[in-house]
Fold each of these.
Amino acid sequence: MTSTHLTRRFAVIMAFAAALLAFVAPAKAENDVTTFFLDNGLQVVVIPDRRAPVVTHMVWYKVGSADEEPGRSGVAHFLEHLMFKGTERHAAGEFSAVISAIGGSENAFTSQDYTAYYQQVGPESLLTMMEFEADRMRGLILTEEVVAPELDVVIEERRARIDSSPGGLLGEELEATLFQNHPYRMPVIGWMHEIEKLDREQAVAFYDLHYAPNNAILVVAGDVDAGTVRELAERTYGAVPRGPELPPRERPQEPPQDTDRTVTMTDPRVSVPSLQRAWLVPSYNSAAPGEAEALDLLAEILGGGVRSRLYQQLVVKTGIAASAGAGYRASALDDTSFSVYGAPRGEADLAAVEAAIEAQVALIANEGVTDDELRRAKDRFVRSMIFARDSQTGMARIYGALLATGSTVEDIEGWPDRVRAVTADDVRDAARRYLAARAHVTGYLLPQAGAGQ
Amino acid sequence: MTSTHLTRRFAVIMAFAAALLAFVAPAKAENDVTTFFLDNGLQVVVIPDRRAPVVTHMVWYKVGSADEEPGRSGVAHFLEHLMFKGTERHAAGEFSAVISAIGGSENAFTSQDYTAYYQQVGPESLLTMMEFEADRMRGLILTEEVVAPELDVVIEERRARIDSSPGGLLGEELEATLFQNHPYRMPVIGWMHEIEKLDREQAVAFYDLHYAPNNAILVVAGDVDAGTVRELAERTYGAVPRGPELPPRERPQEPPQDTDRTVTMTDPRVSVPSLQRAWLVPSYNSAAPGEAEALDLLAEILGGGVRSRLYQQLVVKTGIAASAGAGYRASALDDTSFSVYGAPRGEADLAAVEAAIEAQVALIANEGVTDDELRRAKDRFVRSMIFARDSQTGMARIYGALLATGSTVEDIEGWPDRVRAVTADDVRDAARRYLAARAHVTGYLLPQAGAGQ
């Protein structure tokens, strides 16, 4: 089965930021999002979408790589793989075979803060999905016979995705440098030397502790009403016993960062140099009211696509860059990263790209953004929202990711209004406070012959 | 009371490296070091030294800041302070008052890997010292009334030693960058935001788990024979019950490091810029046979004092540097750091100093050291050894630190022979393998107006 890692490299940050930005405007009555809890603590969210006979069924566990014990990086993701290994009731692979037979699709992914499993099927198959998903919520059976070969799969996955990619390795060391104390410094997939030592016992302990209705969120989006979802959920998930009571998710936090840092990877496989710079900033969950929204709009105005200042100035106007942009990993439980990136075009110099990026950041911090820019950025958000309404899975992901990182349904529903309330001064202040006045970490990816920074 | 932190800044690294190098040659019969265990697991080491009527009495606990739980940095050092707070038998301050009254001295220190307490007194007071020290091994009484004010003392200590010192802050971020996964990345004194949250419960839990005869080493050096020490130790420490059985000290290890990193602190309080560069290298405990000895000699030849290549070339010959040297944090449980450092003199440039340091490292990696240099370096070791024989405390510290980080008494006694066996090729190979071929982290301390690296 395929799993998508929300690693911290730019493509994914951007995709995820886009998904977050893609939140829909307040729902009309027939589209009202509803939420309720089962007696065993499972939160259920229903997002009606009647346009087509399709439902998206997602279960989000409030556990990710940042909840792993020291020395056991990768266990959250390893368990994501193992969740397809069967229960007393269903053999390994049976769930996927059923989905395939009815023409559905499925996926799973692990992030720092959550792990999610989803299927997209016709409404008539929702009950079947719930039965399977509820069954493996606490009924997973892990024998040595299934665990050992799957560990080899994960090791191979790491080799293919990270170890063979200079950018992947640089990204890991950049994160490990930006975060000095917080477990966000560890790669979601885990460090190879720790993956290799994972075993059945560790996976089972992690599963027993974290996989339970009282630590999960069920999101159902699509052609189904809340009453039906409640009835089906009670018949299936309702029978799953509570798991252990878990303490608050209080991870070690960052100390003040007083130094600028660089992380340089030189590799013969690199043909075009590039750089990325990251700052530690608050997330939607850790920010003071309004600040995360201002950072979101700052990322959009500074580097969110082809209309952004970075793209217009570096790629279009001066042409020194082949790419340039910004990203904000907004939906995180704890303080997170705001990043900019760029790569030179042709004979242009990486240092010139870096200086131009710095100048654009300084310009916003010093002079702010125009009302027109802000209005257009908000408009782009609205267009993203409209686009998201076309994406049932996108909506379900937004709700799941934000609910799993400390937001409430009310927070999510109030988000568009909070974004509209952001002023040009708020955006300038966010750039001043979090970018201009704070230490940063810059990663350089250089060809072997490159002179370096 | 005074406590000395083995933090990772250069002065201390160097002092400690010097102490390690200062190990004495194999003892003559009357000076034979003996070791035995009490029934409760306490290891006892006796180092006879009859030259003066003085004994050094040290207890080493095999626990340090690298054994702290995530989010609780500083608890090992906080507990070191709390160890002076009294027991059922002795009020707070009584132990220190007795030492003072008899004209003795005392100290305590916390490192990444161990915590130690010692007194120097006349032989007639050894029993008293043992009684007090055995009493507080498991008998410490910590009430809210004594814990809370001592936390303020520690907070003030951190403020004075680290937060008011740009070099101190840079050193912390350098360590946090060099170590991406291992707990050596955390400061021994703890990060302020975590110190502030330490409490009685955490200190007591740490104490109960780690302070016990089966996790401690008693080192007695001085004017006393092994038979007497055994008899006194059995009367005092022998009555202390075993503590919990502790698992092996397996900390999270470093992933491969594939990037060069820099950490730059710019501060108006800095008048002269300086740099230090660190590599991850094996320690005496983690190295293959002979490699740590080669690294020790490499540090000595490259940068151990005024005869070293760095000093001679940068300070004496070209005169571009006001200081330059190297250090190796040899006695650590896990992989550790090898460092070089330098600061420009007068109008010389930090970049020139850095280039000159790099050239000296490359020279050894490419061309090795001369037999004459190696012989003289070994001679300097021997002279350090002779000097150490004059220092009873120095000897006790060498035994304690090495025994607490995985060495045996036999390892320590065989050390001079292993150093003598190191060849010039071994030193060159160590420079090649661990410095030239490996990623490094460079810290820059710059005046506010400084142009940066």
Amino acid sequence: MLNFADRLLVTVEAQRSHVVVGLDPDYSLFPRQLRTLSPNEAGDPVALAERFEVFLRGILEAVAGIAVAVKPQLAYFEALGAPGYRLYEQMVAEAQDRGLLVIADAKRGDIGSTAEAYARAHLDVAGADAVTVNPWFGTDGVEPFLRRAREAGRGLFVLVKTSNPGSAEIQDLSLGDGAPVYEHVARLVDTWGAGAVGECGYSSVGAVVGATHPAQAAALRAAHPGVLFLVPGYGAQGAGAAQLSGVFDSNGTGAVVSSSRAILYAHRSRGGDWQAAARDEAEDMRRALWASARGGGES
Amino acid sequence: MLNFADRLLVTVEAQRSHVVVGLDPDYSLFPRQLRTLSPNEAGDPVALAERFEVFLRGILEAVAGIAVAVKPQLAYFEALGAPGYRLYEQMVAEAQDRGLLVIADAKRGDIGSTAEAYARAHLDVAGADAVTVNPWFGTDGVEPFLRRAREAGRGLFVLVKTSNPGSAEIQDLSLGDGAPVYEHVARLVDTWGAGAVGECGYSSVGAVVGATHPAQAAALRAAHPGVLFLVPGYGAQGAGAAQLSGVFDSNGTGAVVSSSRAILYAHRSRGGDWQAAARDEAEDMRRALWASARGGGES
């Protein structure tokens, strides 16, 4: 069985793409032709979930073959309650049917017995290929996810340095030895991944490292060569391809980069057909990242 | 509108109880008469969710009037997928119908726009009275929950020092000034709660502080007098009432204590009717905590 890192990086090479599309459905930003619910219907989770489904299915169709993975953001599904949760499970399956890997952006974390239930929920029941995990609980909170990663060829991405401004408040605190807290977490990630290294040299225990902190990301890249990066914050959050060259290794691999709104709602800036706009935006991102990762070469 | 802290602490006084019952449904531990699913059915989320419903409804009936709140642990509901998520929403409503407050143990945390969706999901759509929140993202990840707390009289409990052994790995790290990371987070909680202090003197921004660390909990209690504590780890995780006197203030209030397995599955140790066993276990816990909080006095 191929491990998750191998599956992901083989796809990166095959598609010449580091693109992950975040699925953050927001009805108010949908294309006009999908925003036809009456005010009453727009407050009904079932009606909204049906629109989410049409929209997300269109996005999957648009970005398949360009993106290597999609990253459903659980919060936007949970905000519709049970109908949203069902849609999340359905979208995992439909994305995989289209050849896209699925990273469940759940950011779960809890004590061991509970983390076990979360690992089952997202990696078994929903069937995602990988899940994002919050490190706050330490090793016993991460262990159940590690077990599923090893046993079932799944992956996890630990929140090492997140893309938001407030991330500095805890993650950047200086420890007694002068290192920031996030660097300590990155060292834990090295340890957690030691038993899950694939043929590609990367482990299935990756790290979330925000695109909005390019210098810190490059330093982390250099210090933790076996750790796969999931890099959010591209596009709408402000980071571009040029400043991201440091998240890739010298072979131009070892990281995937995610963008949500800039792709999903590309029709708002690019105009025209919304699916074509999403596809064009994803393709532009693919080319820009490929050039950045491979030192400005062939795209 | 009463704020969450006021609502909770008024109930504590009225019921002479600091007891919170964690809802961690685990089919394998259910009473024998509910464990009658065939192996096929036991793998079916819908069939399992129906058994969860019968069991949890029985628990709500048993502990109403003794516990002040229940704490559904989202992981165990998510592990059944959409049918489990629907049951979570249903149990929130049924618990409130029985006069129990509901603390959604979701431990969510994300960047601002996403945290907004999580706050909506749990405090509005599911309708819980409070939610547990992971502090890793810093202020902008907590702000949307704070807003709901202020606007709608809801509460949050920030994971300051969790009950599991691995909590030491990140939460106990020493910062440059010698303080542990969790103490820094407790100071952030003071700040976050400053605008949400109720008539009781406590804010609706509380802290999760594990019962398994009584000395650290007592130190936090002394240093953060306006912060309501939610104290997990009582019972099955090993902490007893005697060692918990330090989590209460000098009036014997300011904290609620949660127990999950020891109450839910009390029939396994106490025998007899499972609802009666849960009720007796909760009542024993109530008396022991009341005595501990009020200095061994009247129960």
Amino acid sequence: MKIVFLGTSGSTPTKQRNLPSVALEYNGEILLFDCGEGTQRQVMQNSLNISKINKIFISHMHGDHVIGVAGLIRTFALNNREKPLYIFVPEGEEKKINALLTFDKIKFDYPIIVKEAKTGVIDKNKDYIIKAFRLKHSVPTCGFIFKELNRLRFYKNKCMSYGIKGTMFAELKEKGFININKNIKNKNKGKRINLKDVTYEVKGKMIVYATDTRPFINTVTAAKNADLLIHESTYANDNENLAKERMHSTALEAALIAKKANCKKLALLHISSRYHSIDTMKKEAKKIFKNTIIPNDGDILEI
Amino acid sequence: MKIVFLGTSGSTPTKQRNLPSVALEYNGEILLFDCGEGTQRQVMQNSLNISKINKIFISHMHGDHVIGVAGLIRTFALNNREKPLYIFVPEGEEKKINALLTFDKIKFDYPIIVKEAKTGVIDKNKDYIIKAFRLKHSVPTCGFIFKELNRLRFYKNKCMSYGIKGTMFAELKEKGFININKNIKNKNKGKRINLKDVTYEVKGKMIVYATDTRPFINTVTAAKNADLLIHESTYANDNENLAKERMHSTALEAALIAKKANCKKLALLHISSRYHSIDTMKKEAKKIFKNTIIPNDGDILEI
């Protein structure tokens, strides 16, 4: 799967960084995590197909994380979108998002389905589940877990040696076993092959998105062994007190979360516009958690 | 005065063009005409001082012209703005703009004053007046006239020869005349000098902003002899019918307005995202009105 950091600034944009949004492209669809002002243009400028956006997960209703939805849904309308768009917001915030979406009393010709994200599973399909968990910020805020389901893969050589081919794979998957035809010329003829004899499991990837928040035990629990934790890092150590006061995190605090959760990789975003260089932040985080990156807008991660 | 084309696209942004907004920098303040999504970042990227924005003139409440206000006013709040911000919207649209501004029930610490723009003078100070006029679009839409007031300039040499200097200029301006001191050694001693004897008038510049609209007689009247007409040009001739249907203008239609109004210069914006090249549009407009430009985002005009 492909993760594109569309916007990596916090609170206000800068010349270099747009407001928060992360795109996760998976199996032909795009999931957006947050949608700050200007996100639709960031999608275009990163050559993503805007019509693939099916679901938007809004962490909280502060303007810098959500105003972009208003423009995006109007562009969908102009593009004659028909398929539904799902927008998840923290519990109790449905009224606010609706006020933003239809400030001008516009009626949309495609379904826009707003859902309040309670703690736990909020969305699933055959490939993945999405869970929400509560973060610690000045307003109701959700973190999100994208968990790809474990997948079965066939041992190619084993299958070949049993003479399994064509539609037999589907039959095997469906029934859990298959009887090899008695009439074929094969030492395995008539044998019953179980699914588990010819398959192995590939562990699904896990990505956790946590912004805006103070460093919080919930995030450690949610991000346990995650392949990637995307965590806010509004400040460096020099503004540790401001981070506390404004319910944000420093780079170091985010790194501690990644370490405690035994994550494989940490990506920091929501960088305050006061920092013209991220060198200090990177240094402070890497001292605690080596595999830390601070992406620029447009940076791509393949997970 | 300086005009910066912050966003020149229509309806949806493109890789090259952001949504509509034009900044007019005059005498230490910035007036914004329309404020599409992403305008605050365009302001930053064009190195304008965002805190100088005092007044925003919204042509109509279609999302592409107004959504940027929501982000801008939050950035002002984060910057601890204290001075008031004036937002002008077409008559009857106050509720809609308020729904957008405070979708999240935020309270601002500085005054945001929304005014409905009736036809006629909507704002004035010692340097300029702003008038609104009605355009012809699918929703209530205003055009805006920025009219710099005529200014008096002193003939330097004449003033010198009469011995006018220092505080005498202010006195002359205030009273309309001045009596030259009887005691000075000058052939003009004791003489009464009238203001008009030592001054000439410099005509103020006039700029007219007209988008979105069908070509409309009101615009011709409003833009009579304007130094600059900024007019929408969503389509080229190939989409003449679409322009009619969707209540927009072609480049040629905009050029005809500029010609009839005897404008000095025409700038086209609100270019549909379907046009990857503006060459045809430019050609069609220039055939009618030679002094036509189609600015790119970030282009600057000194008037």
Amino acid sequence: MFFILGATGYLGSYFVKYLRQEGEDVFGLSRTEIDYTDVGSLISILRRKKPKFLINAAGYTGKPNVDACESDKAECLFGNAVFPGRIRTACEEVGIPWGHVSSGCIYSDRKSNGEGWSENDEPNFSFRNGPCSFYSGTKALGEEILKDAKDCYIWRLRIPFNEEKSPRNYLQKLLNYSSLLEAENSISHIDDYINSCLSSFTQECEPGIYNLTNSGSIRTRQVVEWMKEEGVTDKEFNFFENEEDFMAKAAITPRSNCVMDTSKAERNGIALRPVEEAVRDSLRKMREQVLA
Amino acid sequence: MFFILGATGYLGSYFVKYLRQEGEDVFGLSRTEIDYTDVGSLISILRRKKPKFLINAAGYTGKPNVDACESDKAECLFGNAVFPGRIRTACEEVGIPWGHVSSGCIYSDRKSNGEGWSENDEPNFSFRNGPCSFYSGTKALGEEILKDAKDCYIWRLRIPFNEEKSPRNYLQKLLNYSSLLEAENSISHIDDYINSCLSSFTQECEPGIYNLTNSGSIRTRQVVEWMKEEGVTDKEFNFFENEEDFMAKAAITPRSNCVMDTSKAERNGIALRPVEEAVRDSLRKMREQVLA
């Protein structure tokens, strides 16, 4: 049985859906049901339920966006750094392998040599290596707290997208925002991401950090171009002049825009599709929904 | 009535003792009695007890020393950063003024102009401005989370000492350690500190950060000299060659050694005694205990 924390959240609900489709037994816990953030409570549920794997899809992301983390720092820090540490304690105590939904948003830009950031690189958009958003700082601390954790997968997601009308879907966000920021990013197709996460466990990859973004990177202007090509919209998109203009007009805290190196996932046979293929696939499905 | 969190801890028990001596009504909560770390629970106790002031003397310091924080990062982060944020939420909700035991250990050395660190200076021994110990990183994040908190005093302590035989007492530590590190530090006499903390509230000082160390600074060699002069010991003290030698032989994480600017406390009439006076006073009492 798979044990999912944050089962009613954005990512968690996709994990639940995917696993149920695969015929797996899923026990989904949401924090409104039980305070699983207490190590003792978590240990006793794990002892009772004896899951073969635990997934931590609970986290504090800020709604509607990362700016909200700046005004609820304590809970952001709790959800993204303290709580993963408590799960580690509980899972190591009971002897349960697990995976943690982490984020590539602890990096900015590319490495100075032009390459994407690999799993071995120190975060450069974190408290220890700023500037950073408070959100990114807490996600980097979360990874620090999980360093050398036993039987723990750290699955780095970035900017999730698919074809659905959720306000959390990157492609939907692009359609909703009045102005866009031109930036280069690695991004993660949700189904591809979930599939890779679970494959890391089922294919017995070595526990540790994995960058799970679609291979390659996108630029915002390129994506809106694809949107038009795929017939999703004929909207004229506005762009901020630059990052300063974006920060001045639309943001409280800086965003991470970065490119990830996905070669470790490729070497381990759990790579996500090339990004253009995944984006166009989602855009075609969005188009079908509009026509339907 | 004064409401004290962490009432059975090292500092907390002195707060309780001092307030009771002053004839104040004290409600001391220890975490073993009730999980006051939950905002909802804390709010309801505060509504029921209606204290005139809350003191947070709970924190994660690491036992026997700060190295222990490196191996329990999640709880260190929780106790020193998340929990103060939750107290803030509860106290602001119920409308209760409060004080937080913070630390000067978020600084290293002196300012580049030779002055001590004032309340307006950004920490330079923190996650955002490293290197730092994990402990110091969490204390600095705690202050960040309390920034602009309503009716909140942030009382910065450093290296507490008095005449008692506690292993937490700096003067006792000097006697117990096999080798010492020569360093310059501001330090806090516990009674002086507690007295200044409570005065900040009773004298209606403006809420905010206060450096509450005895004025001036000490060097380790000077203190052991005073120990001999006051007849506390005739022990020959060994010193590490330098900080590198100390780190290699006796420590896991770097220590904060720093000098604080105490002029804000002086301007507000809540200053602690000059450091030599306070140290010699404690040493004389230690000597009396030996003779008794």
